[in-house]
Amino acid sequence: xxxxxxxxxxxxxxxxxxxxxxxxxxxxxxxxxxxxxxxxxxxxxxxxxxxxxxxxxxxxxxxxxxxxxxxxxxxxxxxxxxxxxxxxxxxxxxxxxxxxxxxxxxxxxxxxxxxxxxxxxxxxxxxxxxxxxxxxxxxxxxxxxxxxxxxxxxxxxxxxxxxxxxxxxxxxxxxxxxxxxxxxxxxxxxxxxxxxxxxxxxxxxxxxxxxxxxxxxxxxxxxxxxxxxxxxxxxx
Length: 236
Prior knowledge:
This protein is 86% helix and 0% strand. By secondary structure, it is mostly helical. Helix 1 (2-44) runs antiparallel to helix 2, helix 2 (60-104) runs antiparallel to helix 5 and helix 3 (106-141) packs antiparallel against helix 5 (163-234). The mean pLDDT is 80.
């Protein structure tokens, strides 16, 4: 179970790291696109709006070209964002297949194997108690004065005075303990499924929120640049 836990943690960390790496790489590419655009803008509007355009050197074609370049930049940034969305969706799908192949069965088998050990421990414990109680009543029936071995709850001796009822209660209590183990095993197996489902849902939600925020940033940036060009043209 310990090795399985470490492998699961390693895979989770690797999954998040791969998403972050792709996102960071995409951000750098977008920044490079914006840098190239703004470098071109500075060739036409070298000091921003701090000075008025020089009518002798003002080039209407140049500002028109900037508008076309800005339109292209918008398309490229939005296309890059769409590519990232598709890449993330693909990565999440691949990781989901990886989980099904490596954990859906193995994780549950590991839990089942461990609980088989627990059930055996419980069975051996209660079989031991029943054996001691059976010996106690056998000694008692021979008028030898039964002695209770260590580990037998004294409450049973005080409350029960016949072999049939005593062994029945011990058996029922053992069955109850086994039932609780069965319920806990089932809960852990469900948690095994939920753990990965919640991880994938978290990844999808984070990407959707990031994508919406990025699109809003792109639109706001393009709008600011359009206003910049409009103010420059209006000053002529």
